[in-house]
Amino acid sequence: MPLMPLPREWDTFLSRANPAVIATIRKDGSPHSVATWYDWHKGRIMLNMDPKRVRLEHIRRDPRVALTVFDKQEWEIHLSLLGRIVEITDDYTLEDIDRLAIRYTRMPFGNRDHGRITAWMEPERWHGWGQDGNLVPR
Amino acid sequence: MPLMPLPREWDTFLSRANPAVIATIRKDGSPHSVATWYDWHKGRIMLNMDPKRVRLEHIRRDPRVALTVFDKQEWEIHLSLLGRIVEITDDYTLEDIDRLAIRYTRMPFGNRDHGRITAWMEPERWHGWGQDGNLVPR
């Protein structure tokens, strides 16, 4: 798998509000995966979660994560990133989750009863499957 | 996360040719994720891959995997399964990859130059996000 940075076409791909899956490591070393919203900002992936989600425990214990992103229109196109969580912050103003909710739903986040947690992933490696049906790069 | 079996609505969901992501564990214990075709057959997930794919090394070393499946029409609906690979077989007749290719593309698999490998995942736990926008079960 090639190292970062991403070729420009994949950079554009990530800037769209595409469906994604985050994989984390459970306490016993096995993988966990779940769908997630994300934002792509200056070469980092922004994730945001309810403080009760188990994946928050996972990334606090082991910051290594993988993210796979599908093209929303053509799901044969997808990109995977391997990397690590480099920063975890308290989103007490709900600023980050609102940014994600507006990106994906055009509306601020609905549930404003309790705080959220933001985690920043720094990708290290990537592999993608492009429009011509080939793994990129081969 | 609840144990198997799946409620019937998720069983139906898995029987469709939906986009999915498989997460495996790399040699260093970090997660790897990539998009995959799958089939759902008698409570097991069938996966198939080129013998050169790194995820084959991963599952031979550590059979624990996670799978997240999106509804093809409505991305907001998704299901995740945790489990393990219980059987790896040589698909030398290309029967299994043809079954997947026909399921997803309505055509037999294009590349017939070399063999394929089939891996069967047995799910142990599941969690889903349903049509009403809630994590199921809560």
Distinct helical segment count of chain A = 3
Which class best fits the helix and strand makeup of chain A? alpha+beta
**Ends distance of chain A:** 10 Å
| Quaternary state of the chains | homodimer
Task: Sketch the topology of chain A as an H/E string, one letter per element.
Answer: HEEEEHEEHEE
CATH class of chain A: Mainly Beta
Tell me, rounded to a whole number, the average pLDDT of chain A. Answer: 94
CATH H-level superfamily title of chain A? Electron Transport, Fmn-binding Protein, Chain A
**% residues in beta strands of chain A:** 35-45%
Main interface by residue count: A-B, 26 and 26 residues
**Residues in helices of chain A, as a percent range:** 10-25%
Any idea what the radius of gyration of chain A is?
Answer: 15 Å
